[in-house]
Amino acid sequence: MNRRTGIAALSSAALVAAAVTAALAHNASAATLGHPFPSHVTYKVGVKPSASQATRDAAVEKQYNSWKSTYLVHGCASNEYYVSTKGDGDAPNNGTVSEAQGYGMNIVPLMAGYDANAKVEFDGLWQLVKDHRDGQGMMQWKLDGNTCKYADSGTPDGATDGDLDIGYGLILADKQWGGYTADALAWLGRFYAADVASDGHLKCEDDGPGTDTRPSDFMLDHLRAFAAYDTAHDWNKVITKTQNLIQEFTAAYSPTANLLSDFVVNANTTSPTPAPANYQESQPDNIVATHESNSYKSHSGGNPQKVYPHTKLDGTPYNTSDVAEEAGDSVGPSAMAAGDQGWTDTIWNYLATNPFGDAYFGETIKMIVYIVMAGDYWAPGDSSSPTPTPTTSSGTPTPTPTDSTPPPPPTSTPPPPPSAIVNGGFETGDFTGWTRTGTTAITTSTVHSGTHAVLLGSTNPTNGDSKVSQTFTAPAGSTTVSFYYLVHCPDDVTYDWATATLKDNTTGTTVTVLGRTCNLNTSYTKVSHAITAGDSYTLTLVNHDENNPGDATDTRYDDVSVS
After folding, report:
1. Could you tell me if 340 and 469 lie in one domain?
2. CB 5 within 8 A of CB 216
3. Residue 322 belongs to a domain with what CATH number?
4. pLDDT tens across 130-159, in order?
5. What is the model's pTM?
6. I want to staple 260 with a disulfide (CB 3.0 to 4.6 A). Which of 215, 344, 511, 524 is the partner?
């Protein structure tokens, strides 16, 4: 069989593991989303491209518009959607493969809040998976675009990379909208039974031998999310075995470059070896799937146009094929995690092009890489929605831990004393307690209460973000931070908006508490979000205007408080 490398999922994992037809418009129900786009996540390590956040968000939106209109297809049934492999020939008649379906089930939840139809599309993607399962309950890995039937020889089977992404997508959907817990847990249970070997390593396919594995399927962020979400199966065993395989293989075959071959045999031993030539795919045995930023930067001379997808285990390029499917691949996020600002910026700037002629695969990877590099890739553990509570066969709730537990503060340094919001109603008549950028003013007109409010933006056009922010420590007994806002937005949410974020400085997570909003309401709206007593937070209130004459946008904020 000919299955692509799961490189786009690796691009997402690079940060998380190291540390994370209808018009597209603002979703009126964005307040019900766990993470409306743009999420503006603060990754635990590394850097982001130097381009402004607004520029990065706009690039993601532009790519999503193009990707969705080209590759997200409403078919094979009225309640189904699939991601077409159009232009690549990976499935007959521009059909789909489980890898593509998994990518779609990751992308669409991450874009909810920008795409008003995201939940309908996700449900359609999931419905197609449910309607095309193999004997192990996984998705049939290749479907014909005309008949929507299995399009490979032999008995229908699944592909590990696609099935991993489908499971991760269900968790993302549950954290974004809620209501997918049972589906996600059932899928993970079937995956564990079919795709995890007895020693804990991932098999290449659900009906394949228990002696081989494919490192391009090693998505440690997915596995950690599974471990946090599904306590009925020993995902930590899978994580440990995966990490051991990486260490054992690189020590023996790539001690300097620390690269992995695309396929590995003898994975059920402590001496895994590269698969022989033409193993499952017609490629040499020294082609890698897990790419490291330093190796790519070195062999390309820092030129993304010379980044090749195939690399020997000693780190030298194997130039027999097209250039990497988009300059980003896993390299962009790896450069970010490595803290290499110059290389990160070079890759980001090059992402806007696709000179290699690769359609579905390159453009879909580009979509995921854009989300990651823009800082809009949130992980399930960042969710502001409640962690699901799976049940045992007897119906007894089973506690589910979060997928990361912040370390306790050092015993030698006591935590800072609790402090509430300072000057939350702006009644001092100035910005005491707040930091600000852009066009900001204290106003005495149209306030929520008292005599003052903050005005971000102006009745005259302004350029970009105007914002105020304040860092505070949630006092003992406090559970909620809240504020009121009134946006005057005569434009479209594509161009102008109000938004607000809350960063938990203690855990390093950031949530969008007010998704992009553009309206002409005449009364204030209250926004509230849960906080944890003792944690340090930074609340940022924003007005964005594109500087277009005739439709200037401004936002008033008032009565910021902790209770």
Report:
1. no
2. yes
3. 1.50.10.10
4. 999 999 999 999 999 999 999 988 888 888
5. 0.60
6. 215
